Amino acid sequence: MHLEYTDLVVIGGGPAGMMCAYNAAGRGISVTLLEPNRQLGRKLRITGKGRCNVTNNCDIKTFMSNIPGDGRFLYSALNRFSPADTIAFFEAHGLPLKTERGNRVFPCSDNANDVAALMTKLCRTAGVKIMQASASGIATEDGAVSGVATDHGFIPCRAAAVCTGGLSYPLTGSTGAGLDFARRFGHTVTPPRPSLVPLESADAYCSEMQGFALKNVTLSAYEDNKLIYRELGEMLFTHFGVSGPLVLSASSHMRNMGKAEYRLEIDLKPGLDEKKLDARILRDFEKYSNREYRNALSDLAGRTMIPVLVSLSGIPENTKVNAITHEQRMRLLHLFKAFPVSVTGTRPIDEAIVTAGGVSTKEINPRTMESKLIPGLYFAGEVLDLDGYTGGFNLQIAWSTGYVAGNSV
After folding, report:
1. Predicted pLDDT at 168
2. Which of 79, 174, 309, 318 is a Cys-bridge partner for 165, taking CB atoms 3.0 to 4.6 Å apart?
């Protein structure tokens, strides 16, 4: 069954899709937005633990340094719709924003639904036709886009924008369909892999400390013993390994999982150098000189972690503190400055915040987001082989690429 003609069909009602549809409709182009979920922006509504880290309040140079892959592709898009433009856009449309630690930008309401609701309202006001439907294929005629097949019928059109996301959070509709569309037209697709994802470890003590959170620690990640990431912040031990903001960020640097060897080190006392930390340990040992070793660390470490520190230090737990040697104390000190966690892999891609990999940017025009292979075919958002570190960078990629696509059709 043929449905009514529309100039542009946007496939996917996430941040990139909504931004694309809104901007195209604002230029007088007829737009139909396809979204299988009842609500637009379903994944958007759960980002940032339901608070929605809208963007990162930084300049373009800083932004580019937070894109581990081919960030240069984004240069044109970011210059047309920068983080500052994103902030101005939402505030101009009545959504006050605030900047928090790490230049992360959130709505003042701390409610991700407000972001999704505003984008939905803007699309409707601009005249976008929102259809609860799934796309099953994109048709071409004479090598250019001519229509989109859906489970409601065939929509004739002259352009299609694929904004379907990656493979993370599949329950929100990120099923990888857009990657299949790209492959059918001969596009190169870098195999999807999880990014911003918890890490699994073979160390039994991680599960022993399940639920134990660390704050104000420095996490270092190594690839084949080469430092690839170091940052101060928070993390968490789990039944499978480690998670939390620091771990998610570290995971996005681990781009050769299965080929390279990865490990983590945690500086539990980043505010103290080794000399000051040794003096601190000596003070505690003097304070608890007649106690057994296992009962002398309560001022230095959390109760959950003490048995692990005792075990890894190799000092018998019932050793009297006043009998601990200098060499044994140095082993403990090293544990505090470089607590080891092995990495055996990542959690599954459906637990990742972001999908790395996707449609090769070499085959997309960075000034328009149009395919270099098929006229009238556009890609925006997470479906592209672009991903950033945690802190609002991935949503900004969606806003910027969606904006450029919507203004180029």
Report:
1. 53
2. 174
CA-based torsion, 115, 121, 122, 128: positive or negative: positive
* Burial of 314 (C-beta count, 10 Å sphere; 0-12/13-18/19+): exposed
Helix (H) or strand (E) holding 206: helix 204-208
> Coil, strand, or helix at residue 375?
coil
**Angle subtended at Cα 397 by Cα 98 and Cα 76, rounded to the nearest 5 degrees:** 115
Question: How much is the pLDDT for 350?
Answer: 78
Q: What are the Cα distances from residue 346, in Å, to 50, 203, 277, 316, 405?
A: 23, 14, 33, 34, 33
pLDDT, averaged per 10 consecutive residues of the chain (409 residues), comes to 94 97 98 95 88 96 88 95 98 98 95 97 98 96 97 97 75 68 95 88 97 97 96 96 93 89 98 96 92 93 96 94 94 97 92 85 98 98 91 95 98
The CA distances from residue 366 to 68, 191, 239, 269, 361, in Å, are 17, 21, 42, 44, 8
Residue 310: phi and psi, rounded to 5, are: -60, -45
Distance, C-alpha 18 to centroid of its chain: 19
- The CA distance from 179 to 194, in Å, is 15
**Residues comprising the chain, all counted:** 409
Q: CA of 229: how far to CAs of 126, 187, 216, 265, in Å? A: 44, 32, 16, 10
Q: How many helices (H) and strands (E) does the chain have?
A: 13, 20
| Half-sphere exposure of residue 98: CA atoms within 13 angstroms, side-chain side | 8
pLDDT at 2: 86
